[in-house]
């Protein structure tokens, strides 16, 4: 747990906080500046805490109205830790921005109200935490300057206030998927089409179980469940998409491509145009597995045009460019996913193509650095990534 604590609250931030605190006692002329440093480091910590509070608020709200809390993702970026507490899967990410909470609700006459309370529960807990601190300590808007000392209470209130932005109706992107803010989600749940919002609620348990199998790499079990879900809700594209992704993970690109191509026109027809970029990226990766670089490049280009800020799509695009010989541009795209501290299938894929690009550029030092890293953690690679890793190694050994 100590390791997890210092990954979620990084040692570098604690070290900076300690140095600034010690210097305060020796350099009075810089006291205001050092106060600002301490306040901003504390604010960074508070943002992580209030993000955790926010997602916990959703879970608490679900439990209070008879729902079953299932999953809580806190933050974005590299995964730091995952655990399970009382049946709730908890995933901690490095960056204290955004997150996701999932819960199961049975169909009932009060479903709209229950689900609406769940959606707004995160904002409510932030509001309660901020108000309690405000009532006890008060709030000073000039706390940023550090002139009046170190006001941690105001920093905590401010961090909770930032989470309240979620009550404003807008769309944001979470790993490439376009999601409504809590405020917009609340209005959609309370006043939107019942069929559109709740058509799959009766199958939530199946969806959760299928995704559990997928995460655990039990692909045959996951595929079977998604096939059954598709039979029950044939116009819901999520199950079909996951079936194609599983085929890719199993290194069956031809089967995946056949299925993905049948979905091309359905995304727009089913108002899922925001996820078209992810769909195109799946096609690009499948063609990369087949070593059909022209088709891979065509779909990757369309995907990056649709979702230019998505790192995984950018890494696919960069990997294909490197395979095609456009090394300099490709290296810039895959670099965004390089992370030696958090080995995962995504970061290892970036490193293996960084290795190939360095080899093609004649940079032996960089090539060997990334080769050692991927070799050390290749057990974390998915089957499709391992196939591409072996292909990269063959090219490097020529």
Can you characterise this structure?
The protein has 398 residues and is mainly α. It has a domain at 2-196. Helix content is 65%, strand content 11%. The strands form two sheets. It has a two-stranded antiparallel sheet. Strands 3-4 form a two-stranded antiparallel ribbon. It starts with a helix and ends with a helix.
What are the SSEs and their pairings?
Layout: H1 2-8, H2 11-24, H3 31-64, E1 68-85, E2 88-104, H4 111-137, H5 152-163, E3 171-174, E4 177-180, H6 182-191, H7 194-198, H8 204-215, H9 219-232, H10 237-249, H11 253-262, H12 266-269, H13 276-289, H14 293-306, H15 311-324, H16 327-335, H17 345-361, H18 364-376, H19 383-396
Antiparallel strand pairs: 1-2, 3-4
Helix pairs in contact: 2-3, 3-4, 3-5, 4-5, 4-6, 8-9, 9-10, 10-11, 10-13, 11-13, 13-14, 13-15, 14-15, 15-16, 15-17, 16-17, 17-18, 17-19
Any key phrases for this structure?
398 residues, two-stranded antiparallel ribbon, mainly alpha, 19 helices, single chain, 65% helix, 4 strands
Question: Brief description of this entry?
Answer:
By secondary structure, the protein is mostly helical.
Quote the average pLDDT.
90
Order of helices and strands: HHHEEHHEEHHHHHHHHHHHHHH
Taking pLDDT < 50 over at least 5 consecutive residues as the criterion, the unreliable ranges are: none
- Main sheet overview: 2 strands, antiparallel
Number of strands: 4
Strand content: 5-15%
What class, by secondary structure content?
mainly alpha
Shape: globular
Helix share of residues? 55-70%
CA-atom Rg in angstroms: 24 Å
Quickly count the helices: 19
Strand order of the largest sheet: 1-2
End-to-end distance: 45 Å
């Amino acid at each position: 747990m100590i390791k997890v604590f210092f990954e979620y609250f990084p040692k570098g931030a604690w070290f900076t906080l300690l140095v600034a605190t010690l210097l305060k006692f020796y350099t009075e002329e810089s006291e205001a500046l050092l106060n600002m440093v301490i306040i901003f480091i504390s604010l960074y910590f508070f943002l992580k805490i209030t993000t955790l509070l926010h997602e916990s608020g959703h879970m608490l709200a679900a439990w209070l109205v008879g729902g079953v809390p299932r999953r809580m993702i806190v933050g974005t970026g590299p995964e730091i830790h995952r655990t399970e507490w009382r049946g709730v899967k908890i995933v901690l990410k490095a960056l204290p921005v955004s997150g996701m909470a999932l819960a199961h609700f049975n169909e009932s006459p009060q479903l709209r109200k229950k689900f609406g309370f769940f959606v707004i529960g995160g904002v409510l807990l932030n509001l309660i935490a901020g108000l309690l601190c405000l009532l006890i300590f008060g709030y000073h808007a000039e706390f940023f300057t550090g002139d009046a000392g170190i006001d941690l209470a105001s920093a905590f209130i401010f961090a909770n206030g930032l989470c309240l932005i979620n009550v404003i109706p807008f769309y944001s992107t979470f790993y490439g998927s376009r999601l409504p803010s809590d405020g917009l989600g609340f209005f959609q749940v309370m006043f939107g089409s019942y069929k559109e919002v709740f058509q799959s609620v009766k199958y939530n348990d199946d969806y959760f179980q299928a995704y559990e199998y997928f995460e655990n790499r039990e692909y045959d079990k996951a595929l079977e469940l998604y096939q059954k879900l598709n039979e029950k809700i044939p116009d819901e594209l999520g199950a079909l998409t996951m079936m194609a992704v599983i085929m890719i993970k199993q290194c069956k690109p031809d089967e995946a491509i056949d299925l993905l191509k049948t979905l091309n026109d359905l995304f727009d027809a089913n108002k899922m145009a925001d996820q078209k970029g992810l769909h195109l990226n799946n096609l690009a990766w499948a063609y990369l597995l087949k070593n059909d670089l022209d088709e891979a490049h065509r779909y990757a280009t369309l995907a990056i045009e649709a979702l230019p800020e998505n790192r995984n799509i950018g890494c696919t695009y960069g990997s294909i460019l490197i395979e095609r010989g456009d090394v300099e541009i490709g290296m810039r795209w895959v670099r965004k996913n390089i992370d030696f501290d958090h080995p995962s299938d995504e970061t290892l894929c970036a490193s293996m193509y960084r290795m190939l690009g360095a080899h093609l550029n004649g940079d032996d030092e960089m090539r060997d650095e990334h080769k050692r890293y991927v070799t050390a953690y290749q057990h974390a690679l998915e089957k499709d990534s391992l196939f591409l890793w072996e292909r990269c190694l063959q090219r490097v050994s020529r």
